[in-house]
C-alpha cells in the first residue's frame, strides 16, 4: 500500500505520512526484533555523490515504525475506516552523524520514549554494523480521520503500545 503524501510548506508537511492501522493476529516476518528493521540501501536511495539522500532516512524510519506495529500485531489498513483514527507525523528532529552508501545494510532501531493521550514519541536510529549514522526523535499524533484533529489513542492500541514502551 502506498502512503499518501501531504504537500505544503515545511519538513513536517513534506513527510507527513498517514498510517492506517487494523489489528491482526499474525505478525510479519520482515523484522528481526520487535524494534529493529534491516534495510538495504538501493541506488534509488542515494544522491549524486553516492550516499543516502538525507530525506530518505525519514522513509526508513517510517518503514521501521510501520513494521514494528505489525510485529506487535497491529497491521495497516482499515482501522481508519472502522475507528476513524490515523497517525500523522507532527514533529521530526533528526541528526546526521555519518553517511550510508549504496549496498549498505542498515539496521533501524525504534523505541517509544513517551506515550501521551493522543501522541507517541519515538527515538529512532540508523546503524551500519557498529556505526551510528543517524538519530531522530519523531512525534506522531492520533487524529480523527474526518476532522484531522487530535483524538485520544484507542484503548486497545494504547494497551499494546504501553507494553512495548521503554
TrEMBL record:
Gene3D superfamilies named in the record = Hotdog Thioesterase
- Residues annotated as domain Thioesterase: 49-134
Q: Per its UniProt record, what Pfam families does this chain match?
A: 4HBT
InterPro entries, alphabetized: 4-hydroxybenzoyl-CoA_TE (IPR050563), HotDog_dom_sf (IPR029069), Thioestr_dom (IPR006683), Tol-Pal_acyl-CoA_thioesterase (IPR014166), YbgC/YbaW (IPR006684)
Question: Which keywords, in A-to-Z order, does the entry hold?
Answer: Hydrolase
On whether Membrane is a keyword of this UniProt record, the answer is no
Q: What family does this chain come from, according to its entry?
A: Belongs to the 4-hydroxybenzoyl-CoA thioesterase family.
Q: Which PANTHER family match?
A: 4-HYDROXYBENZOYL-COA THIOESTERASE FAMILY MEMBER, ACYL-COA THIOESTER HYDROLASE YBGC
Q: What is this protein called?
A: Tol-pal system-associated acyl-CoA thioesterase
Q: Which organism is it from?
A: Paenalcaligenes hermetiae
Amino acid at each position: 500500500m502506498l502512503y499518501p503524501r501531504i504537500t505544503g510548506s515545511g519538513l513536517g508537511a513534506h513527510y507527513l505520512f498517514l498510517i492506517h492501522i487494523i489489528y491482526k493476529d499474525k505478525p510479519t516476518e520482515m523484522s528481526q526484533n520487535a524494534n529493529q528493521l534491516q534495510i538495504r540501501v538501493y541506488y534509488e536511495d542515494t544522491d549524486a555523490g553516492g550516499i543516502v539522500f538525507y530525506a530518505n532516512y525519514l522513509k526508513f524510519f517510517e518503514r521501521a515504525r510501520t513494521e514494528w506495529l505489525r510485529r506487535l500485531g497491529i497491521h495497516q489498513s482499515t482501522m481508519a475506516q472502522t475507528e476513524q483514527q490515523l497517525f500523522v507525523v507532527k514533529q521530526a528532529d533528526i541528526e546526521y552523524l555519518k553517511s550510508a552508501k549504496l549496498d549498505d545494510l542498515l539496521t533501524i532501531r525504534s523505541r517509544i520514549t513517551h506515550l501521551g493521550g493522543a501522541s507517541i514519541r519515538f527515538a529512532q536510529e540508523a546503524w551500519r554494523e557498529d556505526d551510528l549514522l543517524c538519530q531522530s526523535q519523531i512525534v506522531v499524533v492520533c487524529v480523527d480521520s474526518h476532522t484531522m484533529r487530535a483524538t485520544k489513542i484507542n484503548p486497545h492500541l494504547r494497551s499494546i503500545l504501553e507494553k512495548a514502551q521503554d
